[in-house]
Amino acid sequence: MLRLLVVLAAIDLDVSRDLRVPAQRAEMEKHARVILTRFSDGARFFTNTRGGGASIDFYQQISTCSPISQYAWELGLLWVSDEEVGLIWSFDPR
Predict the structure, then answer these.
(1) Residue 28 burial (CB < 10 Å; 0-12/13-18/19+)?
(2) CA-closest candidate to residue 16, choices 80, 74, 73, 59
(3) How far apart are CA 28 and CA 31, in angstroms?
(4) Is 46 left (phi over 0), alpha (psi -120 to 50) or beta?
(5) What pTM did the predictor assign?
(6) CA–CA separation, 49 and 66 (whole Å)
């Protein structure tokens, strides 16, 4: 989930093309870890990316998503626990 949160902060939702990431990657990951501390044990996570059953490396280019809005490209993270439901989403309006 850490890498997905970094992708959601990357320009064009693509870590491999965001020139800021190499210099700021450690700081971006630090911020992602803070967000992850919010999730309780047993939380379930969902995203709208597809990896064909394989684990996705979010630091590589992501080739597919299932948009939920009017935009053709968006990525997000949904989590569900006994205490809360949360959503972090990023849209590319091009």
Answers:
(1) buried
(2) 59
(3) 5
(4) beta
(5) 0.86
(6) 6
How does pLDDT run along the chain (94 residues), one tens digit per residue? 899 999 999 988 889 889 999 999 999 999 999 999 988 889 999 999 876 556 788 898 788 889 988 988 899 999 999 988 999 999 987 7
Bridge partners, 87 (sequence order)? 78
Q: Which two tokens stand for residue 63?
A: 């080739």
Please, which residues have CB within 8 angstroms of residue 31's CB and are 6 or more apart in sequence?
5, 9
In the chain, where does DSSP find H-type helix? 2-9, 21-36
